[in-house]
Amino acid sequence: MEERNKTLGEFIIENQKAFQYSSGELSRILNSIRLAAKVVNYKVNKAGLVDIIGAVGEQNIQGEEQQKLDVYANEVFIQTLINREIVCGIASEENDDFITVQGSDNCHNNKYVILMDPLDGSSNIDVNVSLGTIFSVFRRITPIGTPVTSEDFLQPGVNQVAAGYVIYGTSTMLVYTTGFGVNGFTLNPAIGTFYLSHPNMKFPKDGHIYSVNEGNYVHFPQGVKNYIKYCQREEDDRPYTSRYIGSLVSDFHRNMIKGGIYIYPTSSKAPKGKLRLLYECNPMAFIAEQAGGKATDGFGRIMEIQPTELHQRVPFFCGSQNMVEKAEQFMAEAE
Ligand code: AHM
Ligand code: MG
Question: How many alpha carbons fall within 13 Å on the CB side of residue 286?
Answer without folding.
Answer: 29
